[in-house]
Structure formats: structure tokens, C-alpha cells
Amino acid sequence: MSNNTASSSAGANGSADSAAPRRNSKRPKYSRFTQQELPACKPILTPRWVISAFMLVSIIFVPIGIASLFASRDVVEIVDRSETACIPAQNRSDKVGYIQSSADKTCNRTLRVTKRMKQPIYVYYQLDNFYQNHQRCVKSRSDEQLRSRSGENETSSCEPEDVINGTAIVPCGLIAWSLFNDTYSFSHNNQQLQVNKKGISWKSDRDHKFGKDVFPKNFQNGSLKGGAILNTSIPLSDQEDLIVWMRTAALPTFRKLYGKIEQDLLPNDEILVTLENNYNTYSFNGKKKLVLSTTSWLGGKNDFLGIAYLIVGGLCFFLAMCFTVVYLVKPRRLGDPSYLSWNRTPGGR
Amino acid sequence: MTRGRIRARLRRSHFHPFSCMRPRTEDGKGPHPIEGPGYSRVVHCNQPRMHRRKPLKYCSNYISTTKYNIVTFLPKALFEQFRRVANIYFLLAAILSLTPVAPFSAVSMIFPLAFVVGISMAKEALEDWRRFIQDMKVNTRKASVHVADGFGYKTWEKIQVGDVVRVEKDQFFPADLLLLSSSYEDGICYVETMNLDGETNLKPKRALEVTLPLDEDEAFKNFTGTIKCEDPNPSLYTFIGNLEYNHQVYPLDPSQILLRDSKLRNTTFVYGVVIFTGFDSKVMQNSTKSPSKRSRIERKMDKIIYILFSLLLVISLISSIGFAVKIKFQMPDWWYMQPSKPENLYDPNSPVKSGLAHLITALILYGYLIPISLYVSIEVVKVCQAKFIDEDLKMYDEETGNTAEARTSNLNEELGQVDTILSDKTGTLTCNQMDFLKCSIAGTAYGVRSSEVELAAAKQMAMDLEEQDVEISNGSSLKNHARNSWENSSGAPEIELETVITSADEKDQKTAIKGFSFEDNRLMDGNWLKEPNTEVILLFFRILAVCQSAVPELNEDTGIFTYEAESPDEGAFLVAAREFGFEFCKRTQSSVIIREKFARPGQLVEREFKILSLLEFTSKRKRMSVIVRDEDGQILLLCKGADSIIFDRLSKKGRMYEETTAKHLNEYGEAGLRTLALAYKKLDESEYNTWNNEFMKAKTSVVADRDGMLERVADMMERELILVGATAVEDKLQKGVPQCIDKLAQAGLKIWVLTGDKMETAINIGYACSLLRQGMKQICITVTNSDATSQDSKQAVKDNILHQITNASHMIKLEKDPLAAFALIIDGKTLTFALEDDMKHQFLALAVECASVICCRVSPKQKALVTRLVKEGTGRTTLAIGDGANDVGMIQEADIGVGISGVEGMQAVMASDFSISQFQFLERLLVVHGHWCYKRIAQMICYFFYKNIAFGLTLFYFEAFAAFSGQSVYDDWYMLLFNVVLTSLPVISLGVFEQDVSSEVCLQFPALYQQGPKNLFFDWYRILGWMGNGLYSSLVIFFLNLVILFDQPFRAEGQTADMSAVGTTIFSCIVCAVNCQIALTMSHFTWIQHVFVWGSIASWFLFLLLYGMVSPIYSGNAYQILVEALGPAPIYWCSIILVTVACNLPYMTHISFQRCIHPMDHHIIQEIKYYRKDVEDQTMWRRERSKARQETKIGFSVRVDAKIRQLKGKLHKKHSTLVTQSYASSPS
Q1: Angle at A32 between CA A27 and CA A37, to 5 degrees
Q2: How far is residue B1107's CA from residue A147's CA, in Å, rounded to a whole number?
Q3: Of B908, B831, B905, B825, which is closest to residue B863 (Cα–Cα)?
Q4: CA distances from B789 to A328, B230, B793, B1053 (A)
Q5: Element (H, E) at B189
Q6: Where is the chain membrane-spanning (chain B) (predicted)?
């Protein structure tokens, strides 16, 4: 693209410059900036530029799309929906009552591996219709309190789960209070599959947001029980389930990392899941799913990115073709003065 | 007179039989009956103390044009600010943000509002301060006022009603005064009312006879008197009052009143009593409050804001209803929110209350739809644009050292949309300087210099010829033939053209004599003696020197006489006579003495002409005569006057030169010169005596119609004249005026001239500026019967005018010739009727049909009314340009007021929105700056709405996924920065630096200007397009990201995206997409734009990086988000690229398609420039340039075209006769 400096204007200006500066106190100083004559690049969308830009985009996008589709296809995912299945048939008419009762809620599920899954295999729980992103939830926490012991009494934002009998709840607030409390254990061929629950949260969260000297206190001691109970002897920085949970999800349907299985699984392996079905999703008709998934460089199984790339890339290719056709069929010589409005309207002279 | 005071010994009244004649008997008129409402003012002369208390306490002479004072500034300026709807909204939002319903912190709402309002108010304050300073300059002017014993200086503001003031020559009158006496014995003084009505000729004022003795300082010791008169009113030309003096009552009329802001001329001093001070004075009564103007675009912007408000309201309602529904029906099931312990806002038992509270939250949350920063950005951009206008060297006037100045920056873009220009004449189009340029004596034309119009036209013609050369050389042989004969036939004009151009070059070398640019060796330096008709030439010069009413003044340094003339053309005649060797050097009571240089070789001869009578010039008579007795005792009547008048009065043998002179007059008129014909006649002693008796009788009669009688008697004398010749005076146009008018007309602007001057003058200037030309049909609308006092005759007059208007409209409608042009000329008196409600629309309809409109003898108020009529009647943008105080009304009334910061007072400039030092800069101001500013602001506003819709709607979409709880997916900081940092600078750089085409191209292709008045860049189609684009972008940005980051892990390490990750990704996409969008919008990238656009994207990532590094207390979940979570995830970058491209795809396709299939003018020109076709194919470039003019019927180019057409027509005839001849001869 051309760097077109306005040189001719400087010449036109010459006469004014050479005139004797009689009273030049008010005379503006010449600079290219103030005279709006800065050198400028003035790109214009010539057909060549348009076509090559669209082609370039499609050339870049299509391979990315294909690559991400492949990546997504590589991911093996096992989803098991369990919220109804884990309620004994006789209790299904009153799920909420069952889940709130003190009965044993252990439930066994069997998963079949369809494709070879390379370790690490990530274990997620997925909740549905759960508004963790509701403002009342999101605001109901105290980062100061989580971070260090000195901020223990900073509970003003945690209402109604802030204090109990005048002492602060640690961790306070509704999110912590509603901590997910289903547990899973896996076995394969009667062998326990180790679930690694370390390192499932962000390192920065463990190091900087959840204090090593902060221990749970008064947690779930109120009349109303929420979710999980925390081990009061473990500092918050090591309570990774809590840390993961406290990262509020953006949407009412979300998955959260439960742990990692650091062992390959082979096709047709049967995995027995022993599930403690504690968490009440029944009162709001939420689904509960257990997900085992491998990841690719792009993350989980999600064809959408690849498809979107392909669509946009294809669209660009199509547009490039269209413009090429237009350019070939109805070429307009660039800078053809006959297209100027005064040459096109019959009224013009 | 022993005081040694210099006193002009001349009884001036002798020369003014009409206006200043005093009836012999004093009881011609009785005192006015002063009583009743409207006539309550009592002034005790020389007793200002009487006016310190009520009821006679009148307002002081202090004037203030400021909008605010210290006390009122805050409330008034705040009120002004909150007249903007958006500001009210933001104020409410700020107040509500103090309550718990707010989704954001209060500071983030209050700070931007305070900033916006603060900046705007500071600007207001600064502008008002400037006005205050200007007022103070006026208020602190010194005037000589009578105090206890003698005269002392007081500032103007201290002058009180009843004070006796002494005003010296060339000073302004500090208030409206009653003239008591002047340095002339008969109490005459001359006043220039330039600032009031724009008229430059001097007006005589006359004191009452009884007050004449009060002509020295001592006389006022014991002077008292009482004036009873009308209350303050804006009528400049009327005054009714009585003076009670020495127990007698004398009537007062306007001729004794000296108005504030007019100037004393040709009179050493006057004494006067202050009647009206300050705001009571007529000139101030005429002034209107300076309105705060808003540009068309801004008004439209308000409408868009209303649309956005509705949108805001709709989505807020949806949100709050959704919220209420969720609260009512679902919240009880959400045990994790402990619905049993509800806070106020989340109470499932009272969903309506929660819903209403949430409505407020939503209104604040979605406030991003209404761009608060838009106002700030626009203010910033406009200030920068104004700075560019101020700094433009091509609008800098070396002569006066003035730059153009954008005094209010509100209207920059309005400059690009002007449709009609209403221009003052004197001082704006003309410099009010007359130059004697040509003359025709005894049927011979003298004077080789060309008028500016001719010069300009000649250049144009030369250019056109060149073009034709090119075209014709490609043409057929027939055309060649035509061209040859063309050359043959137009050989003479071409030679003329050459002389025209060469003489223009010489012009600079000669030392210019003011008022004289005549050049012809045949007449100069006594060479005229060698010409034939020496006698006539001699007579011609004598008429120039004698037939006048000026006073000579000897400049003692140079020994050259200068002349104090009533009108500048008279001055030009005297200077011309002096240069020809007939120096008018002395005027006595009854004679004029001329020093003749060439009467006898090498000797100066003083000749005395006894003035017997002087029949002065009036606009009705259009002529002036003197009857003189020369040294031989011969009585001569010397007459000069409008050619039509003189030609009617020629005797049979006086018509010798009539034909040739008429031809010359025609040529002069065509060249835009003011012409007068000169004639004389010889009188017998007895003939004169009989006439004089009758004349004296008429002079001293006490009949009501004395003036009419005088005129009739004078008319009897001015008959049977012998034509001598004609003069052509150039009313010197300001530099570059014809060219500028030509260009403006080509840019499609209509130009109206509103002048306080006489009709003839106005028409002459019309010719000079090419607003009128030969062959144009002039429609003059005038009232014949001037006094319309009774209701009946008023109706008759109105009917008459209406009849004229309808007739003219009819004529225009019936006109078939597309090239026919009409000019409407209307005078002030007619205008008063034409502007009345029942007629103004017909008048306007007629005026719009005419190519040029000239209104003459209009008062300042009428100027404003006409401006209002055009503004409101046509609905188009009007621009008023003027230089004097009389233009203030129209400058304020018009959409844009432009003041000429010339030599005259500053009133016009003070009232204006833009000031330039010369009319010719108007072209650049409109065509370059206006065009740019319009496009910049239009694009900027469109983009602003786009980006805020694109951003604001994502907030709404998220709500739908967050149970409408008012939670935003973005960090508060992101939202705060979005408008302030991340997207503000690129859009400001768009508004400040964007140039679709360079300034030269703007000037070369005036048609490009029409993009503004046609409003191609801010029509609803475009605005809605941009809004649609915003909607599309918001959908793409939000939903693509949502699906990509839905529930799956977004990294190889298996983490899923939480709210901060999703929010940050979406926000990154928004920042990239809108900044890429603006890059696509721009067509002009200097390094500044590059830095701002790409820098904005970079600064977002930089911010994210830095924000992630500060302690998590502040950054919350955004802590280390880029470094730890998003940066290493390829999906983050992939989605940014995908979304950015997807967002810009439709716009990119649109502009590519538009350029490809329906290119606009600037696209083509950009391409031509890009491929340097203008350099390679200069013919094409020139041809297009000449085509890029709007079809116009005024301007000298058209005049040239008309001329060429005429010549071609002749040629064609000649050619066809040639052909027939050849056919006829060939058979033989």
C-alpha cells in the first residue's frame, strides 16, 4: 500500500510562506500535524485485495478447523447420567424427601469404555439447572476471609451464611455452603482405580487466594445443612474440591473437575463406579452427570470450534469466489471516472 | 467665536436641499402628543442625578452579552448540561448507584458523569469568559462627559441617562444621544451607521435650532431641559419625543438621534444628551440572545439515543419480568440460595417488588447501550477539529494576521451540510472601497485594466479553451474546421484575454493609489490633449471634479488631497479627477476650486466654479446635479446619474454617443462594475433665473409634500442633457470573492445576499460577484406606493406583492429553457410584507426557485427573519456570514454564523460560531473542513453506537443465562475500561484524523461536498445498518464463545472455564472485533491511527497481564488469568481469531461489494489517486474536475459558459452561412 504524502499542497502553500511575515505573532506554525498533512497509508479495497484477503482467511481457517475437528474427535468421553438412576425405585415419587433423609445413598453404576482412553482421564461432575452464576451466589463470599486468617471476620458480604452465634463462619457465604458433596470411587476388574484429587484447581488459587493458615470453622454448623462438610484440620489451600467449587461457573449447566485417573483405560473395559448420591439437585430438577474424559490440545470434546472455523473459512472461500466471478463478469476498471456520480446521472453535465 | 476652536466655515446644509432643508417657519410641526403607554420616558438633561432614583432610574450603560454570571453559572450551566437526555439518565443512574440495587460500585457511575459534565461546563465557562472580556473592553471605553464644571472622561458603563456627552470625530457614540450641537454652525453632523445597518454612506443628522448655541464646554454649566419620549424599542429609524427647553416644547424626530455603535464622521465633535443607555439603546434592543446551537447530527443523535433508550427499557423490562418470574416460581426450589432467608431483593413472596427493584438494576447494568463516553469523545474530537481549523495556514490572512477561528466547536460537522449561504454585502463580499477603473468618453472606451471578475473569468475561459483544444483535436475534421473558424472569429477576444492576464501581472508592480486603478496612456499625463474630442474629455473631467459634495482635506505630509465624501464612489471620482490633473482643492461657501494641471503646459491653473445650486443624490432620483457658473460666466448644469435615468433625459443632439456609450455600459456592467453616466447642459442666465425662482419657492414652502415638490422642480431642470460619457467604478470585492462564490455554487450551495444597501448597489455587486449576469431574468419585487399607513392601503400593498410573487412563480413554471436562470431582487420594505405569515411561504417558494436572491435595504431584524424563514421553511442548513453589528441577528439565527474578523467592530465575530478573516476562506472552511468534519463525526457516532450495542447486548444475553439476576459476566474493571481506554482512542483518532480524500481533492471536486447536504453518511439507512451490525456482532461474540467454552474443558489440563475465563474470553473478542472494525472503517492511516487502533488491542492484553499480577484482593478471579489460565490455552486464541473474523465479515463484504458495484465518488477518486492516474492521465483528471460541479446558474464559470454558448451560436450561424455559400458557389 502506498505511502502517499501530500507534497503538492506544500507547494501551493509556498506563496503564503514567502510573504513577508508582517505580523506573524498569530501566524500558526507550520507542521504537518496541524495542517493535517501527515504521511498516511491509504489502503483501498481493490478486488485483488478483497479476494486475497478472503482467500487468506479461508486458507488459514480451513486447516485450523480440520485440526480442531480432529482434536475433538480424538477425545474420548463417557457420560453417565445418574440423578434418577441412583434413587431406589420406591423413592422415586419423592426424590427430595429421599435425598434429604439420612438413608444410605450409595449407588453403583457401570461404565463401559468405548475407545482407548489415555491417561490422564479427567473425572467431572456435571450439574444442570444450577444457577451458580446467580448474583446472590456470586456475591456471597469473602475473598479476604479465604485468603488469610486475619480477614476471618470479613463476612459482611456473606449473608445469610455469615456468622453463627456471633462468630464467623469460615468459609462463609452461600457458594461455600452449597459445596458439592457427592463422592465417586472407581474400580476396574475389582481393582480400585486411584482418583488423584491433587492439582485439579488453579495453582494461583491454592497459592494466593486460599490461605494456608485458614481452617474451616463453624462450617455447616447451622440449623440448615448445605453441601459438603470440610475437614477442619486441613487448611483451605488444600481443600481443592472447595477451590474448584468456588470458581463460579458461567452457565447454569457446568462441569467441574473432580479428579484425575492416571491410568489408561482400554476399550470394553468395564468400570464400576460407587457413588455417594448426597447432593440435592432434585428440588430444582437438576440433572447430575458423571463424566470421564480425556483431553486434546484444545481441551475437551467439542466439535463446534472446528465446525465454526470450517464454516467461516468456507464462507470466505465462497465470498472470494463470488468476488472473483463479479470481477471477471462485470469488471470495473479501478478509478474509472465513468462511475463518478456526475457521469452516471443523466442530469450531470 | 473667540475660543480658537477650529470650525469648518462651510455651511453644509447649503448642499442638501432635500434631507437637511430647514423650513423657514418653526411652526411647521407642533410638538408630538406624548402621552399614554409606550411614551413614558422622561429624561432630565444634564441632571443625571435625577436618574439615580426610581421612577426615573433607568438601566445603566453597562452591557453584558454573557450567558452566565458567577452566581447563575452553576445552576444554569448544569441545567444546560442536563438538557441532554443521556446526561439525565446517567445522573439518575449515578444516584441509584448509591443504593444497594446497583450492579456496579457508585464511583464507576459517578466519576464518568462528573468528568463529562465537568468538561462540557469548563468549555462553556471558557467561552463565556471570552465574551465577558470582550464586553469589558466595550464597557471600559472612555467618553467625555459633562460633570459638575466642565468635561471629564468616564468609562462607558458609568454613563447615565441625562448626561451630556461630547463625542469627537471617528468615535463611537456610547449610548443613544439627542444631538444638541456640532462643530458645524448649523448643527449638522455626519454619522456612519455601518454597525447598525451595514450602510457605509454617511448620514447627516441635524440638531434643533434652539440647542445650537450649546456648542462649547462652558455652555453646559447651566443647561437643563426635559425630554419626554417613547420607551426603548428596537426600531432604528423611528423616534418620537419632545424636548422641553426654556419653557418651550420642541418636537424631536429621528434626525436628531445619534445611535449607539454608530460612528461620528467628518465632524470634529458633537454634544449630545444621553437618552437611552445600555440595553435600552436601540442597537441593544435589536440584539437577540445568543442561542445555543446544536448541529443537525447531534439532534439526530438524540433521536438515536431515544431509540437506544427504548431498547434499554425493553431489555430491562424483559430482564425484570424474567427475574420476577424466576424469583416467584423457581427461587423457592433453589435451596442453595437459602430462599427461606431472603434479602429484600430476592424475596419469592413479593416478586413484584423484587422485579421493580431489579428494573433499576437492569437499567443501570445495560447502561452500556447508551455511550456516556460518546459525549466526551465528541467534545474532544470537536475541540481537536476546531484546533485544526484555527491552525490552518491556508485560512490565515497575512494582511490582518488573523487566523480562522472556530469559536464554538459544536458545529464543525454542520459546516459540511450547508445548503444555503446568506451573506452580507459590505465588508463581506466587498471591501467597501471603490476604484475608478474604466470610462467611456465621447463614445471611446478608455481603461485597459480588467475587473477582478473579468480576470477570473478570463482564466476560466483560457482553461476551458485549452480543454476544448484537447477535445477538438481528437474530433473530426468538421470540428477542426469549426475550430479554425472559431479561432478566426474569436481572435480578438483571445488577444483581449492575453492583455487581461498580462496586465494582472503588472498590477502588483505599480504603487496602488487608493480608489484609482485606471490605466490607459491615452488619458494619463495629459495625453488626452492629443485625443480627438478634447473638449468632451475636458468636460468629462470637470464633471468628475465639480459634480460632487465632498470636502477636500490636505494631507500635510504628502501634499496630496484626500476627500471626505458621502459615498465611496464619489471619493473614487475625485481621486480619478485628481490623477487626471483636475485636482479639487478647495470648497468655499459657494464655490469649488479646481487646480488644473494641463490647461497650460507646465503650469497649474486654479479655476473657480461658482455653485449656484446642488440637486443632491437620492435613491429615488438616482442622479445628482450641480449648476455652476464657470470663470467665463457660462452657466452649466453638470449631472451624473444612473445610465437609464440619464439616457431618458438626453436632448436630441445630446445623443451623439448614446449607442457606443450604451454598449460600453453594457460591457462594464457585465464586468461587474458600477456605472454612472455623465451629462451636462448649458443654461442661459434667464433660463436659470426663472427656474431658480421656482426652486427657491419650493424650498421654502411649508407644504407637506415639500420634498416631492422639490423633486419635481429639480426634474424640470435636469432635462435636455448632452451625454458626455460614462464611468465604471469597481466596488472592490474582497480578495477571491468571485472565485469563492463560483466554487461554492459548484459545490451546490445557494447564495443569498442580504444587504442594507440600495438596490442599485446590490445589483451591481450581484453582477460583480457573478450572482447576476446578462441574460438572467431578474424578478424585482417592490412596492410602488411607499407609504402604507392605513389598513386599507396596507392590504392593497400586500395584494400587490402577492400578485407579483404569484406572477413570477408562474413565469418560472412556464419557463422551458433549462438554462434559463432567474434572480429575485426584493427590497426591505417589500420584505416586511413578504415575511408576514400569510405570504412568507409563497415568497420562499419563489425564492427557492431562483438561482440567486438579493434582498436590499433590509434591517438587521429582517436579515434574521429571512434567515429564519429559509432555515425553517426549507428545513435545510443555513449559514449566515457577515462582518458588522447589523449582521449579528442573522448570524445568531442561522444554523451556522460566520463572522468576518476584518477591520470593523467585533460584534459580528463575537456573535458568530466561526470567524474567518476573508470571505474567500469560506470555501476551504466548508468544502474541506466541513466535509471532513461531517464525515468524521458521522462515522464516529455510527461506530460509537455499533460498539456499545455490540458490547451492551452481550450483558443482556448473559442475564438470560444467569436467571436475570443482574450479575455481569465481566469484571467491573473491564467494563469501566471498555469505553474509557480500550475503545476510545481509535474512535477519537477516527474523528480527528480521518480523511476520505485529501484537501486538494476536496477543493478540486466540489461535488464531493454534496455528500454532506444529502446526508449520505448519517441517514437512517446507515445508522440502522450500523446498529444491525452491532446486534450481529453481539450475537456472534456471545454465542460463539458460549458454545466453544460451554461445559467442556478448555485446556489440555482438563480445567473447565469458570465465569471469569468465559467473561475474559468474550471481552477479549469484543475488544479485538470492535477495534478491527474501526480499522476497516478508516481509510486514512497515519502513524497515530496505527498506534491507537493496534495499541488499544495491545493495551487490553497488557492490562490483562498487569491486572493478573496485582494482588487477588483487587483482581479477584482475574488473578493471573492470562498467564495461568487463558494464555496457554489455544482455544482462547482460536476463538478470538474466529470471532473477530466472523464479526467483521459482513461489514467487509458490504464495503467490498459496495466499492465493487456501487462505488461512491470518493471511492473512485481514492482509486484514481491510489493508482496515480491523476498524474498519468491529466486530461481525464482535469475533465473530471470540471465536471465535478453541481449544476449551477450563478458564478462566473456559468457566465463564461453562457458567453461561450453565445459565441458558439454566432459561430454556428456564421458557419452555416459559410456552408450554404460554398454550396451555392460549388455548382458554378
Answers
A1: 120
A2: 18
A3: B831
A4: 77, 20, 7, 98
A5: strand B188-192
A6: 85-103, 304-325, 356-378, 944-967, 973-993, 1023-1046, 1061-1080, 1092-1110, 1130-1147
Residue B103: is its pLDDT beyond 50?
yes
Provide the shortest C-alpha distance from residue A269 to chain B (in Å).
Answer: 22
Q: How many CB pairs under 8 A join A and B?
A: 327
CA–CA separation, B169 and B663 (whole Å): 44
B815-827 pLDDT, tens per residue? 777 767 788 888 8
- Kindly state the helix (H) or strand (E) to which residue B41 belongs, with its residue range: strand B41-45
Residues 1044-1083 of B with CB under 8 A from A: 1044-1063, 1083
**What angle is formed at CA B1058 by the lines to CA B1053 and CA B1061, rounded to 5 degrees?**
85
pLDDT in tens, B526-542: 788 888 888 888 888 88
What local confidence, expressed as pLDDT, does residue B598 receive? 75
- What local confidence, expressed as pLDDT, does residue B1031 receive? 94
Residue B562 pairs in a beta bridge with B553
- Chain B environment of A337 (Cβ under 8 Å): 1164, 1168, 1180, 1183-1184
Q: Is A131 exposed, middle or buried (0-12, 13-18, 19+ CB in 10 A)?
A: buried
Lowest mean pLDDT segment, chosen from B462-471, B616-625, B747-756: B462-471
Test B1156 with A340 for CB contact under 8 angstroms.
no
Instruction: Say if B1145 is an interface residue toward chain A (CB within 8 Å).
Output: yes
CA dihedral B242, B243, B249, B253 (to 10 degrees): -50
Model pTM score: 0.81
Q: Kindly name the residue from B392, B424, B731, B883 that is annotated as catalytic.
A: B424
pLDDT at B490 (0 to 100): 40
Give the 3-state secondary structure of B702-726: CCCCHHHHHHHHHHHHCCCEEEEEE
Question: Among the ranges A9-23, B184-198, B214-228, which has the highest mean pLDDT value?
Answer: B214-228
Asked whether B182 and B269 are in contact (CB, 8 A), the reply is yes
B987-1043 pLDDT, tens digit per residue, is: 999 999 998 888 888 888 888 888 888 888 888 999 999 999 999 999 999 999 999
Q: Could you identify the residue written with the cell 428494573?
A: B359
- Residue A232 is classified by DSSP as T
Does residue A348 have a pLDDT over 60? no
Predicted ipTM of the assembly: 0.91
For residue B790, the model assigns a pLDDT of 55
Residues 6+ apart with CB under 8 A from B10: B184, B551, B587, B588, B589
For residues B1044 and A304, is the Cβ–Cβ distance under 8 A?
Answer: yes
CB A209 to CB B1112 under 8 A? yes
Query: Is A339 an 8 Å CB contact of chain B?
Result: yes
Residues B1074-1102, buried b or exposed e (16+ Cβ, 10 A)? bbbbbbebbbbbbebbeebbebbbebbee
Q: Are B913 and B459 in contact (CB under 8 A)?
A: no
User: B 564-593 residues with CB below 8 A of A?
Assistant: none
User: What is the per-residue pLDDT for B114?
Assistant: 84
- What part of A 54-113 touches B (C-beta under 8 Å)? 57, 61, 64, 68
Interchain CB distance below 8 Å, A178 and B336 = yes
Active site residue B390: no
Binning pLDDT at 50, 70 and 90, where does residue B1050 land? Answer: confident
CA-to-CA distance for B481 and B1221, rounded, in angstroms? 15
CA atoms within 13 A on the CB side of A174: 24
Selected residue of B392, B1011, B1080, B1156 to mutate for chain A interface (largest A Cβ count, 10 A): B1156
Give B 314-333 residues with CB within 8 A of chain A: 330, 333
CA distance B188 to B255: 10
Give every CB contact of residue A7 below 8 A, 6+ residues apart in sequence.
Answer: none
pLDDT digits (tens, 9 = 90+) for B18-68: 444 444 434 445 566 666 677 788 888 888 777 777 777 788 888 887 778
